[in-house]
Amino acid sequence: MIYIMIFFWGSNVKEKVVNMKITGLKKAVGEYQRANKEGYYSPKYGYLMFDKTTGELWTDEFYSLGHNEWKQYQSNSIINLGRIMTENNIEINMKNVKSFIEQRIA
């Protein structure tokens, strides 16, 4: 069950997600780790994605020598969580992903 509270301050809209259930955590993190286990220079890689509206977590997997492939989503609620965590030097595992979502995203 997801409750969304929206606060209005002038023209800015602030959104806070309360009591969000994260779905697909174990599967997505496992797929992400498997897809990226061969390192940065491997043509096989994956992106850990998160939908802030539904709480769904998944991995988009690709095979490209130059890492030139990605999926483009038409929703602002879908974020590349793996990239955000990597940029903040946070190891991607189930504990860290759950904690990161609860503290910084939700």
Short description:
29% of the residues lie in helices and 30% in strands. It has 106 residues and is α+β, with helices and mostly antiparallel strands. A hairpin with a 2-residue loop joins strand 1 (3-9) and strand 2.
Write up what this structure looks like.
The structure is a single chain. Residues 1-15 have low confidence and may be disordered. The longest helix is centred in the N-terminal third of the chain and has 12 residues, at 25-36. The protein contains three helices and five strands; from the N terminus they run ββαβββαα. The protein is of the alpha+beta class and 106 residues long. The radius of gyration is 15 Å and the shape is globular. Helix content is 29%, strand content 30%. A three-stranded antiparallel sheet has the order 4-3-5. A two-stranded antiparallel sheet has the order 1-2. The two termini are 13 Å apart.
Describe how the helices and strands are arranged.
Elements: E1 3-9, E2 12-18, H1 25-36, E3 44-51, E4 57-63, E5 78-80, H2 81-87, H3 94-105
Antiparallel strand pairs: 1-2, 3-4, 3-5
